[in-house]
Amino acid sequence: MTIDAVPRDMLSTYLEDALLTGKISPGSRLPSERLLAQRFGLSRPSVREVIKELQERGLVRVIPGRGTFVREPSSVDSIRPLEAYYRRRNATPREVTDARIMLETHAAVLAARNATEDDLTALRKMLSAFEKAGNVVEKARADIAFHILIARAARNSVLEVMFLSIAGLTFEYMLRSLADPTIVREGAPYHDDILAAIADRDTERARRAMEGHLSVAHYHYGEDLDQGLDTLARRELTRLMGPGVSLDGIIESVLTALDGPDDDLLRLEPNSRQR
């Protein structure tokens, strides 16, 4: 394919198509920024921005000193169509809360039965990350990671995938919740209660703590309870970080970390967070 010069968005489309259709196989290294810039008639900063976007979407992994590599297909990839379906249905905080109560109360019960010491250590580290987080987005990253770690500790692969399917919506929900000081004041202490109950192997206490935690928003969202989550999240992100911040990019980076090993989740801590 010979192209003297193409707009930046055409390079993005070309690479995305090659990655998603398998023209460039998983594990392969992409051409260098210099070669892509020469081939497509673009500046290296423009190529770098395209690579960054692909990385945020979980399509490639950048390894310093080695290059950019195509990511292997992940379980998150398999749930993206379902998440897109939820978004087309304009899911609301009320709907997500009801679904989370059904899923996560049982996840807490199973985690109280099945969590290992490694699980408990990871949960404690994530609570520490939540407490140290310097802004709402950092807190939301640590919060969603804490909840997915509980789903993993339940040792039920079906339940974990079900929660992953609403993880993007849940992250948007958390952006709205964590921007409200009253919700943070009333809801955040439940994290310690949930973890303590899981560590004590107290299934009923874990269930009650999780249900109490997830019910806080019902009492404080007001009219927002039945608004589209996507609209609410973009509103809060713009208010907190200004216009031009990509909600989609943030969600993609979070989902990519959630699909990896616990080490990837722990990189969401403030001292080593993803950008």
UniProtKB/TrEMBL annotation:
Keywords: DNA-binding, Pyruvate, Transcription, Transcription regulation. InterPro entries: GntR_C, TF_FadR/GntR_C, Tscrpt_reg_HTH_GntR, WH-like_DNA-bd_sf, WH_DNA-bd_sf. SMART domains: FCD (SM00895), HTH_GNTR (SM00345). The keyword DNA-binding applies. Signal peptide: none annotated. Gene3D superfamilies: GntR ligand-binding domain-like (1.20.120.530), Winged helix-like DNA-binding domain superfamily/Winged helix DNA-binding domain (1.10.10.10). Residues 5-73 form the HTH gntR-type domain. The keyword Nucleotide-binding does not apply. It holds the Pfam family FCD. One of its GO terms (molecular function) is DNA-binding transcription factor activity. It comes from the Bacteria. This is GntR family transcriptional repressor for pyruvate dehydrogenase complex.
